[in-house]
Structure formats: structure tokens, C-alpha cells
């Protein structure tokens, strides 16, 4: 597995993990949800997060597949929006 270092993904992932840990103590946060999302974000950054995602994938394969599908759709949508902005800034041609 090739790991892709990204400061933004690491910051987001560790923030989600932190919220997950808080959520295990505080009743107003869904701790498990934030822990799972933190692992999802960090899965391409660290081997331990990748193995944690594999455990989640074995336990809840449909849910993990759905989140990965959503990620792919969001990446595609952001790419299309970026292209639209680039064409709009260029002006009529």
C-alpha cells in the first residue's frame, strides 16, 4: 500500500479521532461515528489506520462501501466544479 502524505488530511483525521474520543465520554457526541470517520480519512496516511479500516470493512462491509462510494462521488463533483470555475474565470471565448 502506498501512503500519500497530506497535512490537511492528517489534521482532519486527527480532529475527527479527537472528537471520537470526546464522544466516548460526552453523551452529546457520537463517539464511534467520529472514530470511524477519522480512520477513514487517515487510512491512506498510516498503516494502523488502514488496518483499522480493514477491521471496520469486515464488520460492516456495506456501510464502508457506501462511504467509499460517497467519497468517489464527492471527488468527481468537486472536480467538475473546479473545471466550471476555471472555464468561468477564463470568460467567453
TrEMBL record:
Pfam families according to UniProt: PGPGW (PF09656)
Domain of life: Bacteria
Transmembrane segment boundaries: 12-42
Keywords assigned by UniProt, alphabetized: Membrane, Transmembrane, Transmembrane helix
Name by which UniProt lists this protein: Transmembrane protein PGPGW
Species, as recorded: Craurococcus roseus
